[in-house]
Amino acid sequence: MRKALPVAVLAATAALVLGASPVFAAAPKQQPVVSTASAWTPPADYIHEASFFGAAACQAAGKEGVTEGRWSAYICYQKLPFTPVQELYVKK
Fold first, then answer.
1. Which is it for the CA torsion 41, 91, 59, 48, positive or negative?
2. What is the sign of the dihedral through the CA atoms of 40, 46, 49 and 53?
3. Contact at 8 Å (CB) between 71 and 91?
4. What is the pTM assigned to this prediction?
5. Does residue 52 contact residue 86 with C-beta atoms inside 8 Å?
6. Which of these, 92, 68, 60, lies nearest to 76 by C-alpha position?
7. Whole-angstrom Cα distance, residue 76 to residue 85?
8. Is the pLDDT reported for residue 22 higher than 70?
9. CB contact set of 16 (below 8 Å; sequence gap of 6+)
10. Residue-wise DSSP of the chain
């Protein structure tokens, strides 16, 4: 029984090295991620108005502009991931 354990460990190690492991054989191939800074474009007739630190500030400015009649609609967009900066796009 003592010799069976090292043989099993050796067989499992060889399977991993040679890629015969069922865990890795079932994994789907990953496609490369294609990402650019200009992946998002605002809808037609929307222009960039300002940048804000945080979604709440952007939403408040957008609502204020609609209430005051400076624009008819707005979109707050987070341009970069992991940052609180929001971009305000408006439709005049």
1. positive
2. negative
3. yes
4. 0.58
5. yes
6. 60
7. 10
8. no
9. 24
10. -TTHHHHHHHHHHHHHHHT--HHHHTSPPPPPP---TT---PPTTEEEEEEEESHHHHHHHHHHHHHHTS-SEEEEE--STT--EEEEEEE-
85-91/73-77 β-pairing:
antiparallel
Among 33, 34, 79, smallest CA distance to 53 is for 79
pLDDT for the residue numbered 40:
83
In Å, how far from its chain's centre is CA 88?
A: 19
